[in-house]
Known about the structure:
By secondary structure, the protein is α+β, with helices and mostly antiparallel strands. The protein is 65% helix and 13% strand. It has a four-stranded mixed β-sheet with strand order 1-4-3-2, covered by helices on one side. Helix 8 links the parallel strand 3 and strand 4 (289-299). It is elongated and about 85 Å long.
Amino acid sequence: MTSECRGHGHQGHSHSHGHINTHASSIQNIKIAFFLNLTFALIELVGGWWTHSVAIQADAIHDFGDSLVLLSALTLQHWSATSAKGRFTFGFKRLSLLSALGSSIVIFSGSVVIIVAAFGRLAEPQMPHLDGMLWLALLGVAVNGYAAWRIGHGRTQNERALSWHMLEDLLGWIAVLIGSIVMRFYHVPWLDPAMSLVIAGFIILGSARNIWASSQLFLQAAPLVDLESIRDDVLSSTAAKSITALKSWSLDGVHHVASLQVVIPDNLDAEARSLIKQRVKDVFAKRGEFDVTVELDENWPT
């Protein structure tokens, strides 16, 4: 005898206005961060050319990449409210992987271009326009600081992840601000390309990490949870005799899928079997957002 149960490791969408309010707030936060980021990236591009600062140009490339990330996140957040339909039984969450991979490749490539330019500038250093560099840095700290604060107060996983992009931008502009102040007192024109190398190198490492993580998800790698601890937790807290065919994969790095067969004694009534299913879902819920398929197999006597 076999029974099957599907469930989410989080509460449903239908029982409060809180989910709707959170979704609307998340859309608003990401939208504000996107327009601030894109507008300032355009200002940076012109400002970097005007001030002859490759450090500012490096951050402009980074901000354009972040704008792509924010735009894809904004699109994903809109799509996340759409129910699965037709052949797309898991919905459209994996669109975020395409945008994450594409954005990371753009950021990576742009940073390589900046590194080449920075080495050329190190060979023939030029003192940037310090007044313009200082004012751009102050504006950059203000704009990115506000964006980081706004999106960092969001409640969704999407916003928490994006807040790291905003924090990276803020730290980059703090470095540019410090460099512009130092060069006002010391004639060290090599400091500007040196800062751009540090910023670009940091961005390349982060981009490579994101490319690798996205590639793993495309290959359906299991999410970063301890499946053995899940197995042990289920066995120690239920009447289950064993667990077989435990599999898990991730749709987008946040929303995961799991399936497993739980072998149970043959004398359990319907209520006991229902409790086991609920306990399995509770165990997965402690590890993240899981859509769990549980199959109960009775251990028939031989």
